[in-house]
Structures are given as structure tokens and as C-alpha cells.
Design a protein that fits this description.
20 strands, Double-stranded beta-helix, globular, alpha+beta, ten-stranded mixed β-sheet, 6 helices
Length: 329
């Protein structure tokens, strides 16, 4: 598990325009049910824009399996951006034991079937339900009239799993600091300036995490994180073919083997997962991603005073709502 200090190879790649398959739906129903069509062309990643080839409004497409000549990274590697000379991606296969513990800790976890609200066609993939759980700390959600930061219920409901996930965060930061020190220091600085230690997992630069169970998510960029901060992912898998991570900006596929830790700026690099196929009994592909939610900056540094702070925000929001209602009369 503790091989974060191992020297890993480096590969310099030129960053280009992320090209993804055209995908569009005839209507909202088709979109939610995953009935997508395509003109067959690779187009720049621009959801909601018209396809430059067929003119249809684009939706998020799934990453295709790698074709002949595709660059596939199966072992530990750092990707260096050719223009900046800086590390852009760290992919380190160093946590096999931890990944096994992670998978084992998931055996009693209940997963809700979730149709993602901001990505397309994740309800079903070859009959497999897309499921996820979140952990760590949750920011306020004023749209739902929830004004307080809170500790995820997952933390206390599944203490064994949370212990493993905490150890992952600590190891991931060690990997991050070792193999991309400049990006680590930049991420840590931005997060530490905005978010108090009480709201970060084990003092790392990450506040929150998500666990995906056997899910091939379509192309996307991460949302709502501290700008410029990097995320980290741990993978545990068994008897599953496919499920590679395609980084479209660099046109490279990461195999995401069992025990791999992958760290990059998911807010700027377009990424998606190739189709999955179960090939044996008790098959699974668990991934967990940790990140820093930007709205956690609203949290009171002292959690004991968070309820009072949230009550003030709730009162101000209600005053504004009432004022706005009377102003429009």
C-alpha cells in the first residue's frame, strides 16, 4: 500500500481540443431513457451546443472503447503537459491492499439507484444500475433551504468504510505531494485559505467524496469544486472488462486497475469511462473520488457555531424572499 514514494515513469503529451462522439436525443424522454443518436463524427466537447457536423444539440456522450492504436496506460505514470512542462495527471498503482479493504468495506453499504441530474444516459448501462454514495462533509444547499454545513450520514452509518476512505485520503495526498508537488501545494493553498480544517477529511485538501459502483459515467468536467483544485480517485475492481478512463484533452486511456490512485484537475480535463462488462461471479468496479467543494467556504470554522451561522443565512434569505415578493406586486 505505502509505495507513494516510488519513482514512476513520465510521459509528455500535447494537450489538444477534447474530441468526443456526437450524441443527441430527440427529446427529454429519450435523453433520460438513454435513447441517444449520433451522426458518427468526433466533435469538440460542447454539451448543449449544436454539432458542427449534423447541427443537432449535443448531450454528454459516453467514452468509446479504445480503438487500434489508442494510447492505453496500464501501470504507474505521470503525464506531463508538453506546453507547460508541469505534471497534469498522476496515475499510480500503489494501493492494492487498501483497494481490497475498500471493496470489502462496501459489502454492507446500501446504494441508491441514482439518475444523475447533470449527465446523460447514466440510468442503465447494459442492464446495470448506476449507484453512488457520498461521504465527508456536505455544503449548504440554499435552493433546498438547507443553510448549514453538515457531516455526511455515511460517516457514522458505515464507520469501517469511512476508516478506509480516510486512509485513502491520507495516502492520496502523499502520492499527490510526491509526484506533483507544485500542483499539490497550489491545491492545498487554495483549499486551506477557504475551508477550515474541521471541514476537511483528516486535514487533507479534500472535503467530500463520492463512491460509484460499477458505473460508466459519460464525458464531463467536475462542477462546484474549489477553482483550480485537483481531485483524487481510488479504484477497486474484480471480474470487469472495460471501465477505462479516457482523458479527452490528452486522448489517453487510463486502465484504472485495482489499487490505482489517479489525481488530476477534473474541472479542466474532460473525462469519461468506457463501457463495462461483467465477466465473472461477484464482479464489481468501485471507484471513490475525493474533492474540495467550494461552498464549504461558507462553513463556520468552529462546527459548534455552524447552526447559529446557518440560522442567520436562513433569516436573511427569508427576508429577501419576502421583500422580493412584495416588490413584484
Amino acid at each position: 500500500m505505502q509505495r507513494a514514494q516510488t519513482v514512476i515513469p513520465r510521459l509528455t503529451l500535447q494537450r489538444g481540443t477534447p474530441m468526443v462522439p456526437c450524441a443527441y436525443a430527440e427529446g427529454r424522454g429519450d435523453r433520460w431513457d438513454g435513447r441517444l443518436q449520433t451522426c458518427g463524427e468526433l466533435v469538440p466537447y460542447r454539451p448543449k451546443w449544436p454539432c458542427p457536423n449534423c447541427g443537432q444539440k449535443l448531450v454528454a456522450s459516453h467514452a468509446p472503447p479504445p480503438g487500434d492504436g489508442a494510447r492505453i496506460i496500464r501501470g504507474s505514470l505521470s503525464i506531463i503537459d508538453a506546453d507547460t512542462g508541469e505534471v497534469a495527471v498522476v496515475h499510480h498503482v500503489c494501493a492494492s491492499d487498501l483497494a481490497t479493504r475498500f471493496a470489502h468495506s462496501m459489502r454492507d453499504v446500501f446504494f441508491d439507484t441514482q439518475v444523475y441530474s447533470r449527465v446523460t444516459t447514466t440510468a442503465r448501462l447494459n442492464g446495470m444500475a448506476v449507484t453512488h454514495r457520498t461521504y465527508g462533509y456536505q455544503p449548504p444547499q440554499p435552493m433546498r433551504r438547507r443553510y448549514a454545513c453538515s457531516r455526511s450520514q455515511f460517516n457514522s452509518t458505515y464507520p469501517e468504510a469511512m476508516d478506509v476512505l480516510t486512509k485513502f485520503c491520507q495516502l492520496a495526498e502523499q502520492v499527490f505531494r510526491t509526484h506533483a508537488s507544485s500542483a499539490h501545494d497550489d491545491t492545498a493553498g487554495k483549499v486551506h485559505d477557504k475551508i477550515a480544517p474541521a471541514w476537511r477529511i483528516a486535514g487533507t485538501p479534500w472535503t467530500s467524496g463520492i463512491i460509484n459502483k460499477t458505473a460508466a459515467l459519460p464525458y464531463h468536467v467536475d462542477k462546484d469544486n474549489v477553482p483550480g483544485s485537483w481531485s483524487a480517485m481510488l479504484a477497486a475492481r474484480r471480474h470487469v472488462d472495460g471501465g477505462l478512463l479516457h482523458l479527452a484533452d490528452y486522448d489517453v486511456y487510463l486502465a484504472i486497475p485495482h489499487g490505482s490512485i489517479t489525481i488530476f484537475d477534473g474541472q479542466s480535463v474532460v473525462h469519461g469511462v468506457t463501457p463495462l462488462r461483467l465477466v465473472g461471479p461477484h464482479a464489481f468496479r468501485y471507484t471513490t473520488v475525493v474533492y474540495a467543494k467550494s461552498l464549504m467556504s461558507k462553513c463556520c470554522p468552529d462546527p459548534r457555531k455552524e447552526a447559529a451561522r446557518a440560522q442567520m443565512d436562513a433569516t436573511l434569505a427569508e427576508d429577501l424572499r419576502i421583500t422580493d415578493r412584495f416588490t413584484k406586486r
